[in-house]
Design brief:
single chain; alpha+beta; 13 strands; about 60% helix; about 15% strand
């Protein structure tokens, strides 16, 4: 205890020599307490000594007393340094446990040593407890508040490397010894042909001691082993048999890991010489060429079977795979797969066109032919878009495809040709005949430009199985009637013209009083009317039924408007005997602020005759009939789809693809977008809503067909061609 607190005795001697009576008395009274101070208070002693020696200057101190105070500070500092050194040595022993015989419970690392080294060469803070420092017995009698406020704003530090260089030298020596030991271990591993283990060891050394004074010591050993490691990694990869896919993947993975290591380590990148890079690129190219051979072999297997569409799809998949899985070999692979595709494409088009012609010759399957032409167009466009220099090369084939497609579409148009036939509607004279004639005129006009109809026309006669035939039409006589009149009254106040008058109050007032009185007033007449309203409701009844027959299927259409066709007519009148006229006085606001409309607006509606009501009902019935007939007509693609599905279920891809090809061609000739007559959600009468909703549902189905049918057509044809 005595040795640890020599600095306390020095301070006491210094304090005892001070001329301040209170300080001398304090020393004598607290001597025993000072001798019992714990070693844990070393930092607080140093802080108080530093403060007293550097900051608290007693004007009565003599030079020899100041010298004593300085020595006291040095001894206090020595005690703090001794404590810090002891801590450093303890941490150093932990960092070196891995190299200490018999101590294997905790493995020290190079990183631990470097952390300790970097912390040691900084200014180490002296942590103190201000309250405990102020409570030390020997500080009593001095102004405590001065120390407390000073200590909080002036943290103390000690640079141990300057104050105790022997500790610094010892730490440097131990780190150097550790590095020497590790480098010897690495050389031993190298001599045992354990190059990966040796590289792992020197790589860890390099990472831990980079950006430090020890980096140059590690560098020669690291450079030597790292060079050998990179060279061996490349040589092992180069020596593999790349005819085996597993070896390609293993070599590729080892090079990827090597490149990642080089990219994150400047030291490793410095060892990666031009010669090594050339060796690396040679192996990388060899891997790419081997992988390209395997890819082209897959292409060749498909080409040998004339599976050109599947080859085209595989080509797209391989491009994606190269981008995501083989980015380092991308230049070689991309160039290679495109070169192969470019080379075989003319043969592919020639083969597919031949297949189209065979389909036409064997069974007039023009639907299958147009699918093939579409496939050829897409396969050529796929190349041309990626390489515009190929445009001229395929101009001739594209022109030929266009001609062949148009020829096939002529035959398909004949297949799609359909007619609408409207048979007699009972009664065959009068209403029935009139409705028949009007519908024929309506649809003849509709067929000319409706975007959802292709291949349809009007025809007279009985009609065939391939025609839409409206038959068994019944159109009973129309009737109409009036309901009893309904009367009601309402009061309405209307305002007349505003007139301007001199204010009598202003005129009668003295001149001195007129300033606060309006000179003019405004007057307006009010007209109170009793408006009598009389309403009459007219109701028309209309019914219609018929069948739409097409390809042995019949759709029943029934229209029964019942009480839906109603019209209300309102007529208003004024009884002059019940009209009152009043006059109101208005404010001084301008007369433009008041309405001047004494004339009431009365409803005057002409009541339709019963004959006119019947005519209106007839027109509404006819429009509703067109809505329902149009729904059947535009649903033609569902008929083609159903025919195709029958053959799909039977896995007869030859015939199925032909029907789907015809459907695909039909969908290309119709437009499902925009504002389409009879297929809109615009405002309509309530009794039309159900028919419009049904039409919109059919339109949505056509939009789906427009999107998916080309894919279905190609899939079915490929099932036929490649199976």
């Amino acid at each position: 205890m005595k040795d640890k607190f020599l600095y306390g005795t020095a301070i006491l001697a210094f304090l005892a020599s001070c001329s301040t009576p209170s300080t001398v008395n304090l020393v004598e009274e607290k001597q025993q307490m000072i001798n019992n101070i714990s070693a844990k208070s070393a930092n607080e002693h140093y802080a108080v000594c530093y403060w007293f020696s550097k900051v608290y200057q007693d004007p009565n101190l003599k030079p020899e007393q100041k010298s004593k105070a300085s020595r006291a500070l040095s001894k206090a500092e020595a005690a703090v340094i001794a404590g810090i050194t002891q801590t450093i040595n303890g941490e150093l022993s932990v960092a070196l446990l891995g190299d200490t015989a018999g101590l294997t419970s905790q493995e020290g690392t190079d990183e631990d040593l470097m952390i300790l080294y970097r912390e040691y060469h900084k200014d180490i803070p002296v942590k103190i407890n201000v309250k405990r420092a102020e409570s030390l017995a020997w500080i009593q009698g001095l102004p405590k508040s001065n120390f407390g406020s000073w200590a909080k704003g002036n943290p103390l530090t000690i640079n141990l490397s300057k104050k105790n260089p022997s500790v610094s030298s010892e730490l440097d020596e131990k780190i150097n010894n550790r590095i020497d030991s590790r480098l010897i271990d690495a050389e031993n591993l190298l001599s045992q042909s354990k190059l990966p283990e040796a590289f792992a060891l020197v790589n860890e050394l390099q990472q831990n001691f980079s950006d430090s004074p020890f980096e140059d010591k590690v560098k020669p050993g690291f450079d030597k082993i790292a060079f050998n490691y990179i060279q061996q990694t490349i040589r092992i990869a180069a020596a593999m048999d790349f005819s085996i896919q597993e070896n390609i993947d293993l070599a590729n993975q080892s090079l990827i890991e090597l490149e990642k290591s080089v990219s994150v380590s400047p030291a490793l990148a410095a060892v990666f010489t031009k010669d090594l890079k050339d060796q690396y690129m040679a192996v990388r190219e060899k891997i790419a060429e081997s992988r390209l051979i395997k890819i082209t072999n897959e292409f060749e297997e498909l080409k040998a079977k004339n599976y050109y569409w599947t080859l085209y799809q595989l080509h797209q998949e391989k491009l994606v795979e190269i981008e995501t899985a083989h980015p380092l070999e991308k230049p070689v692979l991309i160039a290679g797969v495109w070169s192969y595709y470019r080379a075989i494409l003319p043969d592919a088009i020639e083969f597919l066109v031949l297949q189209a012609q065979e389909n036409i010759e064997q069974g007039e399957r023009h639907g299958s032919a147009v699918i093939i032409y579409r496939m050829c167009d897409e396969m050529i466009a796929y190349l041309v878009v990626s390489d515009t220099s190929q445009t001229d090369q395929f101009k001739g084939q594209l022109r030929e495809l266009s001609i062949l497609k148009k020829e096939s579409q002529k035959f398909i148009k004949q297949f799609l040709s359909r007619s609408l036939v409207i048979n007699d509607i009972d009664p065959k004279q009068g209403l029935g005949t009139e409705l028949k004639n009007e519908l024929e005129g309506d649809f003849a006009e509709i067929f000319e430009n409706h975007p959802l109809l292709y291949g349809l026309k009007m025809k007279e006669g009985e009609g065939t199985r391939e025609d839409y035939v409206i038959a068994k039409g019944i159109y009973p006589n129309l009737d109409a009637s009036y309901g009893p009149p309904q009367r009601s009254q309402k009061l309405e106040i209307l305002k007349g013209k505003v007139t301007k008058h001199t204010n009598q109050d202003w005129q009668n007032a003295r001149k001195s009083q007129r300033a606060n009185i309006p000179q003019f007033v405004y007057k307006q007449k009010l007209y109170r009317y009793t408006v009598t309203s009389e309403s009459i409701e007219a109701v028309a009844n209309a019914r219609l039924s018929f069948k739409v027959n097409f390809q042995d299927k019949s759709t029943n259409v029934r229209i029964n408007l019942g009480q839906s066709l109603k019209r209300e007519f309102i007529n208003e009148s004024i009884d002059p005997n019940f009209t009152k006229v009043e006059e109101q006085k208005l404010s001084v606001m301008p007369k433009e602020s008041f309405p001047e409309n004494p004339q009431p607006e009365l409803k005057k509606e002409r009541i339709l005759s019963l004959l006119e009501m019947k005519e209106w009902a007839r027109k509404e019935t006819r429009y509703l009939a067109k809505l329902k007939i149009m729904n059947v007509l535009v649903a033609y693609p569902t008929v083609l789809q159903a025919q195709s599905e029958d053959y799909v279920n039977a896995q007869n891809w030859k015939v199925a693809s032909n029907f789907t090809g015809i459907l695909m061609d039909y969908m290309e000739h119709i437009n499902t977008e925009g504002d389409i007559e009879f297929f809109t959600n615009a405002e309509q009468a309530e009794y039309h809503k159900e028919a419009f909703d049904a039409n919109l549902k059919t339109l949505e189905q056509l939009k789906v067909f427009k999107k998916v049918v080309p894919e279905q057509a190609i899939e079915q044809l490929v099932n036929y061609l490649e199976n």
